[in-house]
Amino acid sequence: MPMQDRLQHLVSVVSGQRFLNKQGLGNEVPFFICPYRPEEAVDMDRLQRQLVNRLEQAGIKILCINLYDLAVDILKDREIWEQVLELEPTVAKDQLKELLQGVLDPEAHLVPAIGAKLQSVEFDVLFISGVGEVFPYIRSHNVLNNLQSTAKDQPTVMFFPGSYTHSLETGASLDLFGRLHDDKYYRAFNIFHYEA
């Protein structure tokens, strides 16, 4: 689907009362995946900015959280950002990944930081981006699993560089970059399959 058509679809879905009132979800958490091909990342960033502008003109308040920016903020708040930058060229990738996974653990650190942002502003819809930039030390399905109790009051849209597939054989899967097929997540809806 061309970008302009996607923008139109997203505007009509996200601005609709059905979406904002979390209808048609069958008592599931109001989580939506907005998948896109990884090579479309620049276009998708532009589309997301246009989407936020159009929605805010319609009076819908959007809270945008970029996981990469949030991860950097957490590292700076914990006063280890400079250490990570110094360590990065000298340690094995697995060691760095392990360090970052501990410091940015979704349950212990990342989701509480998201929760604090949710409490600090009034908003109608949460947009989460930066999924590809924080891989492999933060996994999208872990973020969504841990957000279920924190971000259940308003709809959440995760912009995802890859595909979100459902099949009877394998269930649902977040396939990051169209290559990594191991993130099982069943509770979100593909926003392009949701009717306005």
Layout of SSEs?
Blueprint lengths: L2 H12 L2 H4 L10 E6 L4 H17 L4 E5 H11 L3 H7 L5 H11 L2 H15 L4 E5 L10 H8 L8 E12 L3 E6 L3 E5 L4 E2 L6
Parallel strand pairs: 1-4, 1-7, 2-3, 3-4
Antiparallel strand pairs: 4-5, 5-6
Description of the molecule:
The chain is an alpha/beta fold. The protein has 8 helices and 7 strands, in the order ααβαβααααβαββββ. Strands 1, 2, 3, 4, 5, 6 and 7 form a 7-stranded mixed β-sheet that branches. Strand 5 and strand 6 (180-184) form a beta hairpin. Helix 1 runs parallel beside helix 3 (41-57) and helix 7 packs across helix 8. The protein is globular and about 50 Å long.
- Secondary structure: number of strands: 7
- Classify the secondary structure makeup into a structural class: alpha/beta
Proportion of helical residues? 40-55%
Q: In DSSP terms, counting alpha (H) and pi (I) runs of 4 or more, how many helices?
A: 8
Quick tags:
196 residues, 8 helices, seven-stranded mixed sheet, alpha/beta, globular
